[in-house]
Structures are given as C-alpha cells and as structure tokens.
Design brief:
The chain is mainly alpha-helical. The chain contains 15 helices and no strands.
Length: about 350
C-alpha cells in the first residue's frame, strides 16, 4: 500500500485509499484503548487520594475523561483523513477543497461534551441521597432535557452520517483518471499478498513498517467484525442456553459485550511473525496482550451485574444500579486497579519490544 499517510500531494488509488483509512481507524482504535487503559487507574488514584468519599468523584472524573477522549477521537479522525482524501480527489481529477465534508463531521463531534455533561448531571442526581435536586427541578425535567438533547443530536448525527455515506461512496467508487492529470501521473499500486498471507498467517517474518501498518488495518477490521459476530452469533446462543437453565446468569450479556474486549487478539498472527523477526520467543505475545486480562474481568463483572438485575423487582433496579455505581472506584477496588496497572505495563513493554529496529535477518 501507499505508505505516505499524511501527504496531500499526488494521487491515491481506491484500494490504497481504503487501506489508508483502515490504518487511521486502527490507529485511533489503538490510541483510544491505550488512553482508556491509562484513564481508569489515574481516575481511581486521584479519587481515592484526594476525596474521602471516592465513589462520586471517581465517576465525575471518569466521565469527564471519557468525554474528552471520545470528543478528541471524533474530531481528529475525520481531520486525519483529509490528506488521503485530497489525494484521492486528485486521482479523480477534483480539487482538494472537496474534502470539506470531513471538516464538517469534526464540527458535529463538538456536541459530544454536552451529551456527557447531561449524563453526568443525571448520574449525580441519582447518587444524591437527599430529597432536594442539585441541577434540575424534578426528575421529569431531567428526562425532558436529556431526551430532547439526545433526540436533536441524534437527528443531526443521522443527517451528517447520511451525507458522509453518500460522499464516501462517491470517493470510493469513482474511478481515477487513467492518464496523467494536473496532479501527476497515475499512481502505481504496490503488489500485496493475499489477505491470509498478509494479515492472518503467523509463519515467516515481517519488517517493522509493514507490521505496524498491517496491525492497524487488522485492528480496524476486527473492531467491527468481532463485536458484530458476538452480537449476532454468540448472544443468541447464550440467550437460548440461559433460558434453558444451562448457562449461568449474565452469560448472554457477556456474549453481547465480550467482542469489544477481545478483538485485539486478531493481531496475534502478526505479533508472532514480528517476534520471530526480531529473534524473540513467541511466549512474549502473552505480555503484549496482557491488558486483555483485566478487560475480561471487567466484562465478566459487568455481565454478572446486568444479569442480576433480571432477578430484582422493577422498583428495586434503580437503587441497585446506584449502589453499584457508588461502590465502583472506592478502596475496595485497589487489588483490581493494581492488576490493571501491572498488565498495562506488561503490554507497554511488549509493544515497545515489537517496535525495535529490524535486524539484518528480519
């Protein structure tokens, strides 16, 4: 593929444009994963170190951090795709100014902080143990304001998504001019192996740059395919087993959300190839994916809690949810946060090892 990710000069074929967008999506997915992995322990340490009652501060800091993270991701991804889109426009004989819909998508993302603020205010009202409301006059007002904002923002996002879909289809499907144009000669596509040989095989060796690019492409694809497979295949099977009394409580919820936890494992074949290229043991892959362990534990606990709600009376569900929120982020979670930080450190060390310079044999 074309390795110049952030260059706006020249032309880009449809295939290389798709691969470039996949690299950007995979990079954003990896960056979000790392940021969330760092956010949780930092939030916990801050809440327990500076507040006597750590439950509410933990959730306030965590939601604020997630709001910043998701907003930055939603703003940056379209902007990072602008250079590649400009080159793709050049290939079909159009000026780069036609990439402006990506800038508009970034502006739509600015509504995310307001959504998180509404959610945070509603959560604090639920945690408030007094009869007086903090930010709103009544529970009905919470529902009306939050519902009205969510509906309006959903409509805006839907319209923007429709426009971007039509625009993206035009960019992807429009054939490039076969001859030279004012933006240069027709781009030459580098030959790449089959999908299995390039992304799914653990045999042979791989250099650092193709390893990074292919890993990001795999993460982008797996981030869509694996959760979708879990929701469409695993979840119905788990729900049937639960209804028959074979599977334990929460199995259906676990199957529903586990795909978003384990999808980085799709990069395992590439990691094994890279370890062989730099002369390291294949067992070091355990360190690279160590961060998945606390994620799986969290997924299991969330699924158990959601499954337990089915056993409660309807009027007791709200209180149970609030109690669960208040217990998360307190000193009772010290052991889990320590495990989280240890696994994060192991994954960081493992990832850095993978990026070491190529040897002559690699």
């Amino acid at each position: 593929m074309n390795d110049a990710i952030f260059t706006a000069s020249g032309r880009l074929t449809r295939r290389d444009y798709a691969l470039t967008i996949a690299v950007l999506c995979g990079g954003m997915s990896l960056w979000s994963f790392i940021a969330i992995s760092a956010l949780l322990p930092l939030t916990y340490i801050t809440a327990t170190a500076f507040f006597r009652e750590a439950g509410a501060p933990f959730w306030i800091l965590l939601i604020m951090g997630l709001a910043i993270l998701f907003t930055l991701s939603a703003i940056l991804l379209p902007l990072l795709a602008v250079p590649a889109t400009v080159r793709r426009l050049h290939d079909i004989g159009c000026g780069g100014w036609l990439a402006f819909p990506l800038v508009l998508m970034s502006l739509v993302s600015l509504g995310l902080p307001a959504f998180f603020l509404f959610v945070l205010a509603a959560l604090l009202e639920g945690m408030n143990r007094t009869s007086e409301m903090i930010f709103f006059d009544s529970p009905e007002q919470i529902g009306m304001m939050l519902g009205g904002f969510v509906l309006s923002y959903f409509i805006l996002c839907f319209v923007s998504f429709f426009i971007l879909s039509v625009y993206g289809a035009w960019i992807f499907l429009k054939k490039g001019t076969p001859a030279a144009n004012r933006y240069g000669e027709p781009p030459v596509e580098e030959a790449i192996p089959s999908v299995r040989a390039a992304f799914l095989s653990s045999t042979g060796t791989i250099a650092r740059r193709p390893f990074v690019l292919r890993t990001l492409i795999v993460l982008a694809a797996a981030g869509i395919i694996v959760p979708t497979a879990g929701q469409s295949i695993l979840y119905p099977c788990a729900a049937i087993l639960k209804s028959l009394g074979i599977a334990p409580i929460g199995t259906d919820f676990f199957a529903l959300i586990v795909g978003g936890t384990i999808y980085p494992l799709a990069a395992l074949p590439l990691v094994l190839r890279r370890l062989r290229s730099i002369g390291r043991s294949a067992w070091e892959a355990v360190a690279v994916f160590a961060m998945l362990l606390p994620n799986l534990i969290s997924t299991t606990e969330i699924a158990r809690f959601l499954g337990s709600l089915d056993l409660l009376e309807e009027d007791a569900i709200g209180a149970a949810v609030i109690e669960e929120f208040l217990s998360i982020g307190t000193t009772d979670d010290t052991a889990f946060i320590a495990l989280w930080m240890l696994c994060a450190a192991l994954s960081l060390v493992g990832a850095v090892r993978l990026l070491r310079a190529d040897t002559a044999a690699g």
